[in-house]
Amino acid sequence: MHLNFGPEERLYLQRAAYGTAALAGAYVILPALLTKGGRGGSGGVEGEGVWVHGLYNPMNDCFINSVVQCLAGLPSLRLYLRKVLETPTQPERRRLTAALLELLTLLNTPLRRRQSSSARSFVTILGDIHNSTISRNQQDAQEFLNLITETLLTEWSAPLLTAPRFYLPSPTARSFTDAPRGLLHWLRSRDSNILFGVKDLSHTCRRCKHTTKTREEAFTQLSLPVPTTYDASLEECLRGVWADEPIEGYSCTHCALLSAYHTLLRTVKGTSTPSAYHTAQLEALREAAGRQMDEFEEEGVREKFRLRRVESVIDRHTRLLRAPGVLVVHLNRSVYLPNGDTARNPCHVSFCEKLSVGGVKYRLRSLITHTGSHSFGHFIAWRRVEGDEKQWWRMSDEDVKRVGWGEKVRERARLEFPHDDGEILRVSSIAVCPIGYCLPFGYVQQRILPSLRYIPFAPDQNEHPAHFQKWGRGQTGL
After folding, report:
1. Tens of pLDDT along 179-215?
2. pLDDT by residue (tens digit) across 258-280?
3. Which InterPro entries does the entry link to (predicted)?
């Protein structure tokens, strides 16, 4: 049977057919866009530049992926890497710098579809540099970040390391007392190194009031002990880093020198004709006691005079010399029990988007969160969307989500950046690290004030009355 339709009927049927097709297309496409995942290029076209790369996790690589994604959220770091590569040098001396810049550029490339890549080539280069394989058994984001920054420092400062002695006391603190002056000057300079800050350490004995010579250290992150209280703020934890730290049972070299001097002086006074040796020894002890020495010089003095141990209580002083361009803060929640076990400090730590350290203003750019227990779990990276400061990327390996204001992402805990003139993120339900060693905050320096000496930071509650969030009872906190 043939039906004849007029122009109006044909137009009506065409519109109905188009509407049906569009409705069917919406039901087909939208579930793919709204479901959790987006693995390896699945998903529909959302428009130009609305996605960024996720990272595959073939074998417990979430600790690697989270660190790399957070570094990708630091525009100033990419600019600095380009600046380093523009410096004339042999290419093989900047292998990791070039590989990191290539990876960070890839992770910031706008995409029209969900797509994932891999960080394996970068990890392979890092392993080749150290003639080893990156272990996935440890799964420690903090240690992996330390390995990256240490390797970058070695590449960037290689032309300056001409002295035979280069003291490295620990992975997180580098002492440059015996390093070349060029390296010290380079680390102190304001625009020299975006990832490293410099602080000096000294201590004062409460018994003899002697203060040692300051010893400079470079640091890549601030590891903050969490107080054993119900709640605290990040600023309170930071103030603890720069506050004087009392240390009991310290072997004071100056007290030992004074004790040896007065003992020998009593011996000399008890004789009618003191020997030339005793006289010279007295003069040497008096001269040594009057000098200001660092810890390395004190060790040599103790061996020279064979000083007996004199214990005292000292106050350890820490002062900031140069603030880093990118500040990484690590919350140390580990509590060591008498039986040797490790527990988690459950203190609820509140923090705000803006931070002041040593007169330098920082703004939160990225962070890493963790779900699970002390021995296993999963890392998730969060970083700002470039060009839209009100939006953040939630990056769980291949699963990349764009998180807007007030969006609910139900997991275990709750994290909020209270609204402040439309610039602070409001994200809910972020599970966080239960012990804190894998939770760095990536703050990016906004501007440098004339003085880099430490200024105790007191948040202005009147200016930002809602800057701080509190974690509810029974929930995981930062």
Report:
1. 444 555 555 555 556 888 888 889 999 999 999 888 8
2. 999 999 999 888 888 888 888 89
3. Papain-like_cys_pep_sf, Peptidase_C19, Peptidase_C19_UCH, USP, USP_CS
CA angle 255, 308, 276 (to 5 degrees): 85
Strands (DSSP E) found in 111-163: 116-117
In a domain, 278, yes or no: yes
Domain that holds residue 269: 253-309
Which tokens belong to 131?
């003639």
Q: What is the 3-state secondary structure (H, E, C) of 246-304?
A: EEEEEECHHHHHHHHHHHHHHHHHCCCCCCHHHHHHHHHHHHHHHCCCCHHHHHHHHHH
Is the same domain home to 120 and 186? yes
Q: Are 410 and 391 in contact (CB under 8 A)?
A: no
- The answer for residues whose C-beta is within 8 angstroms of residue 377's C-beta and 6 or more apart is 370, 371, 433, 434
Confidence (pLDDT) at 54 = 95
Query: If you ran DSSP here, which 8-state letter would residue 397 be given?
Result: T
d(CA 410, CA 402): 14
Total domain count, the chain: 2
Q: Are residues 193 and 135 in the same domain?
A: yes
Looking at the domain assignment, is residue 472 inside a domain? no
Which tens digit of pLDDT belongs to each residue from 224-264? 888 888 888 888 888 888 889 899 999 999 999 999 999 99
Would you say 221 and 340 are in contact if contact means Cβ atoms under 8 Å apart?
no
The residue behind tokens 């003291």 is 167
